């Protein structure tokens, strides 16, 4: 009979990778700040409910991924010495039930927001939940395909920002209404394209974190039959592509300011380029999960935090 260890608070924080949760928090803050700065709209109730739902789904994704990686691992060394569930002898069933609790909480918060806004959020949130579940679940998980970086960036970057604006912006940029006589569906294309443009730098940098993660885990992923984008590109090509991701993110900030989608104080983020370039060189010199992977996270957090602060500053100063 297997004896499992209790899930202590320090183990829980490692299980959900607490430092990485900022990658979910900052896009949320970006969206809320942008809605306030651009349109002068802020619904505190919707914002608070979405915060609970967004962080719940973020906790679910990380914990659920650990459970799925434990079950799907074909490399026994990885299962017993690197995956936290096997290494710390945690009960995978209890961990799974805890994560499903977070998922349920996120769904309840989402349904409340659908009631507060309109039915289109049900489709948008449903798509995000689908990606969250099937990212590591199912016969062909999305994480084992060369689409993980794109999905991670779009969902955690653009999706979070879009919904944060959606629940604060009236009228909502997407409308779906049904009753016994009428069906109405409309999209404010100008607002949606504007949100996509301003979110793109965070989308790219968020995807870069996943890209760096997959580069570091390339050999281990192959042993566990996970064929991610770096596998298809090959490590040399992946490393040649890597620095261009950060460059494109900064170029898009300049473009968004030029098109007046972002206020001009956001150009101050260019001052972070030496830091991001240094982080990029550090990762290119050595691809290590324990030593250099966090450099990609630091670049994402630095740029995202700077954008949030500058958007708030622009709103206060009425730029």
Automatic annotation (TrEMBL):
<feature type="transmembrane region" description="Helical">
    <location>
        <begin position="249"/>
        <end position="275"/>
    </location>
</feature>
<dbReference type="InterPro" id="IPR000537">
    <property type="entry name" value="UbiA_prenyltransferase"/>
</dbReference>
<keyword id="KW-0472">Membrane</keyword>
<feature type="transmembrane region" description="Helical">
    <location>
        <begin position="295"/>
        <end position="317"/>
    </location>
</feature>
<dbReference type="InterPro" id="IPR044878">
    <property type="entry name" value="UbiA_sf"/>
</dbReference>
<keyword id="KW-0474">Menaquinone biosynthesis</keyword>
<protein>
    <submittedName>
        <fullName>UbiA family prenyltransferase</fullName>
    </submittedName>
</protein>
<dbReference type="InterPro" id="IPR026046">
    <property type="entry name" value="UBIAD1"/>
</dbReference>
<keyword id="KW-0808">Transferase</keyword>
<comment type="pathway">
    <text>Quinol/quinone metabolism; menaquinone biosynthesis.</text>
</comment>
<feature type="transmembrane region" description="Helical">
    <location>
        <begin position="44"/>
        <end position="64"/>
    </location>
</feature>
<feature type="transmembrane region" description="Helical">
    <location>
        <begin position="95"/>
        <end position="114"/>
    </location>
</feature>
<keyword id="KW-0812">Transmembrane</keyword>
<feature type="transmembrane region" description="Helical">
    <location>
        <begin position="121"/>
        <end position="138"/>
    </location>
</feature>
<feature type="transmembrane region" description="Helical">
    <location>
        <begin position="182"/>
        <end position="204"/>
    </location>
</feature>
<feature type="transmembrane region" description="Helical">
    <location>
        <begin position="150"/>
        <end position="170"/>
    </location>
</feature>
<feature type="transmembrane region" description="Helical">
    <location>
        <begin position="20"/>
        <end position="37"/>
    </location>
</feature>
<keyword id="KW-1133">Transmembrane helix</keyword>
<dbReference type="Pfam" id="PF01040">
    <property type="entry name" value="UbiA"/>
</dbReference>
